[in-house]
Predict the 3D structure of the following.
Amino acid sequence: MRMAIAFAQNDSAKADSLLNEFMDYNEDYDTAFTLETLYFRIKGELEKAESVCLEGIEKFDSVPELHRQLALIYLLKGDYDNAYEQAYAADQNAYMLYYYYGDSTAYNDPALINTLYLCAHLNKTKGQLASENAGYVDEILESFTAEELSDEVNAIVNGEKTVEEI
């Protein structure tokens, strides 16, 4: 969170410092991959962000946030089918954490809900609907109302803003 705030304040030196400090002590944890992915995504280094995220998923495939971050990267690249697949994987992993361990934190996370909806919407309107789980797009879209979604997602859905602007 501190790193995102540093970026919001246009203090990339502070963001760099915070990432390096975190990585010194947490290099082999799923959170380290998530944070490093976020760092590169915010900096606009999408190829590096994707590479780090895929490495994290290779080690920690059941972590919903890694799949959500990859979905965001694919959204920024305009790859709506893969964005949807990763958001769907994030949601499925979050559900499994809830079902098997009683941990509903990820499953009820507004960030995940908004990402899943946005990816489903963009897959349906701009994608090929060729992804493995495309058959669930309408069901996902019908599961939420505009009131449940963030202003940012509603702005994209309504054509007021682009993914890149958000």
